[in-house]
Automatic annotation (TrEMBL):
Keyword Metal-binding included in the entry's annotation: no
Keyword Disulfide bond belongs to the record: yes
Name of protein: Pgant8 protein
Domain of life: Eukaryota
InterPro entries assigned to the protein according to its UniProt record, in alphabetical order: Nucleotide-diphossugar_trans, Ricin_B-like_lectins
Keyword line: Disulfide bond
Signal peptide: none
GO cellular component: Golgi apparatus
Gene Ontology terms, MF aspect: polypeptide N-acetylgalactosaminyltransferase activity
PROSITE patterns for the chain: RICIN_B_LECTIN
GO biological process: protein O-linked glycosylation
Amino acid sequence: MGRLVVLMGRGQHHSLVQAFFDCYVKPLPGWASSALEAIRQSPRSVVLPALRDLGEDWEIKGPNSHFDNIFTWEAETVQLYFDPEYVSWPFPVDQGNVLVFGSQWWQELGGYDRLMRGSSTLLLENIELSLRVHLCGGKFLPLNDSVVGFCHSHHGTLHHERGDMLYNQARIIEAWFGEWASEAMKHPRFADYTSGVSAVGDISETRALQGRLQCAGLGSFLDAYRLPLEILGLLPREVFGLREESAGLCLQEWNKDEWGLSKCDETATGQWFVHKNEDIQDGHLACCSGLGPWRNLHGSSSYCLDGRLGKPGPYGCIHRKPPNSQLWEVRDGLLISPEWGCLVPGSPVDVPREAQVQWSACRFSAPGGQAIEEQRFHAEAVAGTDKFRLLLATGQCLSASADSDARVPSLAPCQPEEESQHWRWAKPSLKLGLKPAAKTDICLDIDNGDSPLLYVCYSMEDVHAPYGVVNTNQALWLTPAGHLTQWGPVDTSFTNLCLDGSAPPLQHRRLGLLDCAEAHAQGVRWEKVGAHTPPQTEMVARQKGRRWQRLGLRVEG
């Protein structure tokens, strides 16, 4: 991101203040005087001039605004749109890219992280800089009487590489998230970092800064912004599953576009939900009026349950003034929307034949342990070749039939010399993508989460695609837990799904809507199951408790 640095208010030996301008800005006359005065009065404040729309004709229009944001557990930015009358927290993360620093404070902070890679339209360097400011003794100070025009039509069009983006996110997490880092890095997009394929680089300069300035831990930031973080689903009071009694199944985040009902399992990915979206109670901002997944496929705060014009499923959360389609509550055993009635089990999903495999929610033998037997594969090398067999823990092998018309893989008794049970990696350097050894132009494909499919291979070596992978539906890998699933660094749309050899195949159902009286008559009944406080929220409470104990105070709730 190109920036112009302007030095202002020169002292005896050097400038007192330096301003950072994004491209395509037009400072209004007099913008600097109030900024200089604010820095003189509070040297560790970072002044944020008010931004106004700048048209193609270079004329100023529209009201003053500031781009206040927060970040998710994946170190992605989320803009906060709450009505100012309800905001009780200090200005969080700036993404306006127009900053005024005292020169001494800038030098003490060490400026931007110089080891961040590339240009990112997600402005990840601003998250890192904001954490330096907040945790190391500074604050942001928005000023409405210091105005700069900002041309949105030219902003945010820079290209960014996914690899650079994930590197920068992982670097922020490792450097600043402290005891929260290990939980944050569990997201599938960081699989190459947790498996040792990639690394965040040297963070010794950041560690030295934190020691020199005695920077606070992330807990102080999380505690200060607890309410907006809770509304975004990032610091929930509880995480829970939702079981529907008549079907005996649980609400399941299936893939990027669809939710359904699946076998209840506390270890299953995509079955944990939290309350999200604002709820105004007695004139005060509160949580919450809707629900969405905990640690969503695409990011922590991304999606909420939505009526979707009668086809319930995921839609982008509208945290401020959510529409009726995103208002949901569990009341008297019913999951109720004021607009769409009640959520009910819909039609069954087609079940594969007995010998075939299917996509199902990834499940574990114990939380954080190995995959369950029906999903746990092991790659056994074929001696003297680059081929291997995929043995399921139940005793069968994954097979791609020699029949040219067969498009679905199956399970069969293991036969070491059987060519249809031999596989190769489509991208050997990363052990990524599965190719039947007997069908060199065919790959195992996710098929948008519908069913495992043997389909024409796409390239895994395109220099313009993330990690060379052209079609991420074919970016399958074998996890350390034994799951065959999508490789998160290229795409997380289907990382809740794993290849499953259950016999008989598992039953899944779609979601539907009914009038609530009819739903009640049909015996539909929802209940929360497995409700618990997530470790992220527990750690905030523990850190707050330790801080208050040092002050001789008692913390409650």
